[in-house]
Design brief:
475 residues; mainly alpha; 2 domains; 21 helices; 72% helix; 0% strand
């Protein structure tokens, strides 16, 4: 059941009516049943595998000992690996269960928190089942934590008109990002990346830029929709984006992009790796090679490499994703290892981070670093990615003929001109909105319902029909 379909709209309307009509103590049961119906709608067999994860993790973690923790890892990661990576072993008949990566992370996060005594193991399997299967977050996140979600999911909620209106407004905003901005950019991006060798450097640069905007509009649009739906139900989901393209360094970027995933890696992989025995031994060996380096810096080297390689593999076992992970591992390591030197240098040259021109420079620099990595993320293979890099650096020219040539991916004549005008207005509008909200989080809130009406009109006129799937559903 797609989030941008008539059937989903009907599903939400029926669910909200039942949710607020039943006794408050039964609301969580409505959510559980509704979540299982939503999950089984696409393919009923999917429900078997999520139930295996739910039941096994629940009973094993009621007594959180090391052997149970290892068995939990084997079961959940085993299912994930079999379905996500079977295609790389010439097994093509398996269909990946919906949201398997995200609910696996939630089950393992819960189990790890039980092992670390951060939470008490749940005693009601149906409460735990609701946490894992809660339908707004199951397909693409955000990756919720049991500590943050349990009370919200189980507690009764009164029908609040403000929650309904605010949630509805956010859903409209998400649909606008998906159907108008991402939908309009998709055609150009797909056309160029399908045969990158046929285009010049300028066209490839535009396609990479458009892809970054498309990915953000698509993914953050999804988050707006699910957070809006949850708001209608009186439940607050973790925010997953905070205007990442205004980041001034790469660490800040990853604190603003896919926040829940990065927090998961930090809590359940990075920090345990930093304090592990194997990392202490490797850090000591590295310290002998670099005696002047700080111990804290040395102890982050191998965990950073581990986290980014796993992040790449999590997105897929293709060489492009592994290359993307290695690229950001190198960037992050360089940033961490040079941090103290850069602080001293900035002090010597009286570098003022609050200077507007320096802030613009830092933001553009970070955005370019991200764009460079996104080439690998979007390319069909590493050879395609390297070909794109080569063409960008060797064939990029700024001239009337090159600009005209870059428009061919839009189509011909009036179609290309109309697409350019529409996309220029949309991207400029998105930039202005994001910039103003970066300065003041409450921007555009006083007349938001007028803006919502405007977005609905624009969606009717310029929304791209048929864009039913969100990009991150592939992961």
């Amino acid at each position: 059941m797609s989030l941008i379909s008539v059937s989903f709209f009907i599903f939400i309307c029926i669910l909200l009516i039942i949710y607020y009509k039943v006794k408050p103590g039964n609301q969580w049961k409505v959510l559980l049943i509704g979540s299982l119906v939503f999950y089984a709608w696409v393919r009923p067999v999917y429900i078997v595998f999520i139930l295996i994860s739910i039941i096994s993790t629940f009973y094993l973690m009621r007594n959180p000992v090391r052997s149970h923790w290892i068995l939990t890892l084997i079961i959940n990661l085993g299912i994930l690996i079999v379905f996500r990576y079977s295609i790389y072993f010439d097994v093509h008949s398996l269909i990946v269960p919906l949201g398997i990566s995200f609910y696996t992370f939630m089950t393992l996060g819960y189990a790890h928190d039980c092992m670390g005594k951060k939470i008490e193991p749940e005693t009601n399997i149906f409460h735990y089942a609701l946490f894992i299967s809660y339908f707004p977050q199951i397909t693409q996140g955000p990756i919720g934590t049991y500590k943050d979600m349990k009370d919200q999911l189980i507690s009764p909620h009164e029908c609040n008109i403000i929650n309904i209106k605010e949630g509805g407004y956010r859903c409209i905003k998400g649909l606008f990002k998906k159907l108008v901005i991402a939908g309009r950019l998709t055609y150009y991006v797909d056309t160029v990346f399908s045969s990158p060798n046929n285009y010049n450097g300028l066209t490839l640069i535009i396609a990479v830029f458009f892809y970054a905007i498309e990915l953000y509009a698509d993914f953050s649009g999804y988050m707006d929709i699910v957070c809006g739906i949850s708001r209608m139900l009186g439940i607050t989901l973790t925010e997953n984006f905070k205007r990442p393209y205004f980041s001034r360094n790469i660490q800040e970027y990853w604190r603003r992009w896919h926040i829940s995933l990065n927090e998961w890696f930090k809590e359940h992989l990075m920090l345990p790796a930093v304090t592990s025995g194997w990392n202490r031994k490797l850090s000591k060996m590295l310290g002998k090679l670099f005696p002047k380096a700080k111990k804290g810096t040395l102890r982050t080297v191998f965990p950073l490499i581990l986290v980014w390689i796993i992040t790449g593999i999590w997105h897929g076992a293709e060489d492009v994703y592994i290359g993307w992970g290695v690229y950001f591992a190198i960037i992050m390591l360089f940033s961490v290892c040079t941090m103290n030197y850069m602080k001293k240098l900035r002090t010597k040259i009286h570098w003022n981070d609050d200077n507007i021109f320096i802030r613009i420079f830092q933001t553009l620099r970070t955005f370019i670093i991200v764009l460079f990595g996104e080439v690998m993320f979007r390319a069909h293979s590493l050879s395609d990615a390297f070909s794109i890099y080569k063409k960008i650096f060797t064939t990029t020219r700024i001239s009337v003929s090159e600009i005209t040539s870059s428009l061919t991916a839009f189509g011909n004549g009036n179609q290309a001109l109309a697409s350019v005008i529409i996309l220029t207005v949309l991207i400029l509008g998105l930039f202005i909105v994001e910039l103003l909200k970066e300065k003041d989080e409450n921007s555009f809130m006083s007349h938001r319902y007028i803006y919502a009406a405007g977005m609905l009109i624009v969606m009717t006129l310029f929304g791209v029909a048929g864009q039913s799937n969100f990009m991150y559903q592939a992961f």
